[in-house]
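User: Round two. Same drill as before: sequence, then structure, for each protein.

Assistant: Same drill it is. First protein:
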Amino acid sequence: MNLDSMHPVAGVYLGTTAAKIKKSGAEDLLVVAFHPGSRTAATFTQNAFCAAPVVLAKQHLASQATEALIINSGNANAGTGEQGLADAKQSCQWVASELGIALEAVLPFSTGVIGENLPMEKLALGVPNAIANQAVTGWDAAAKAIMTTDTCAKKLSRQFEIDGHLVTLNGIAKGSGMIHPNMATMLGFAATDAKISQECLDQALKSAVAVSFNRITVDGDTSTNDACTLTATQLADMPEITDMDSEAYQCFYQALEAMMIELAQMIVRDGEGATKFVSVIVEKGATAEECLKVAHAVALSPLVKTALFASDPNWGRILAAVGRSGLVDFDINALQIYLGTVLLVENGGRADSYTEAAGQAVMNEADITIRIVLNRGEVSETVWTTDFSYDYVRINAEYRS
């Protein structure tokens, strides 16, 4: 997506500033304001040590219509106890006071180093500066301000028609490491001008997250701060979507799902130190659960991931990962494993047609597909992941320095 091609979403105003939370001095604070009457859906991390802003955002979402977001990068405000909750609440209060809205109408989000208190004196100065910079054209700056170890901004903009009415849908996300979402993405924010009921909005986000951000993994670590929101400003010239069985809902959902999947894949492609983008496809399983169990066993295997980095067609590592995935009554003789279009395994061992040269040709590519055919049913699932490189270790070893 071209940096200048994000369409404005009516009723969404984004402002950023450099509050000096990040050591680099880059912009690190984003405040988003929504037109009154907007509706917001959200999903949050399942990590038991969920960050203070996650705790507060859940409370505020349940008690009041959302009219603003405050997002900082460079500090996660996680593992900070009661002080962290007080700081998150204070940051919301500053936004509420500046915008003239209720405290509970502000949702807070943070990303960065865990275990350090927010630099409140910096936020106190940063909030009015960010709000002063608000504009409907602030999407590009917003995508950059939420980055941590990301090497590029992740943003998409879509315009499409629902029953002849033009609808705009935008999304930004951040994430590069500590990526194994268990409900959402590291941080993701989407907005649309669509006129849609709260029930339909909640279901659309839940369904889209399930097949996008919940299908990616870089390192198997579920963050304390994962969150994803979807806000509809209700300002499009269209009838309200109230029926999940309607063509209008399906049209909206398909656009949302496609955008979320592309954003999720951007996160994987920007995985810390990643040199490979890997699709792990499990086919002909009995259930979605068992397909995902096998896919994650392969996608999370350090031995598979290091072989991918080395471009080494060591198919035995894939076979071993599938074997330890925990499938019940697993018939290994029915299993087939492909690397790209190359058949690696069948009848319980190496395929007679396999050659090292064919496997090597696939492993030399930057985009690789591992396809596992269980032959136990008709269900298929896909997980996207990366390799493990020297740079992954370096980036995380130097993260706080």
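Second protein:
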Amino acid sequence: AYIGNIDFKREGLLSKGLGGLLKKAISGEGTSLMHATGTGKLYLADEGKKVKIIKLQNEAVFVNGNDVLALEENIKNEIKMLKSIAGMMSGGLFQVKLSGSGYIAITTHGEPILLRVTGNQPVYTDPNATVAWSENLTPNIKTNLTFGSFIGRGSGESFQLEFFGEGWVLVQPYEEVKYAAKS
């Protein structure tokens, strides 16, 4: 919904060039963007999810592609391949890197929690509940396999993401199965 004088234009298939099209096709992050211009108020939603507005100030964040709702025109968006197995566990090899200065809107199932990561306090998260993290953090995989994990249902998760350094991680109270195979 919107109030005011707003025009909409779907982003063209080749607007990011052939390289952008190939990245979208390979990564499955092929969501088309809608370009809205004008004056007024624009109200956006995605299947009843919570919307979190984040102001970037000459910085970057990594976000799961299906959790990006909106971004200002001056925010650069690019699909990045994560270089670790931990990246695969957090929703696939590909994430969307949003960078620059301006506002972004991301969605979560339920009220998100922002966890601070400091040099002496790493953060551990469930890969399927991890939504976004600051650019200077790189997730590593932490396994917690015990004998109980192999017999019936063990307590706790077998894999966690481990974040070291200085920054933050945004998690949701929901284990989202990301990029499930389509039949």
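Helices lie at 17-27, 85-89, 147-150.

User: Perfect.
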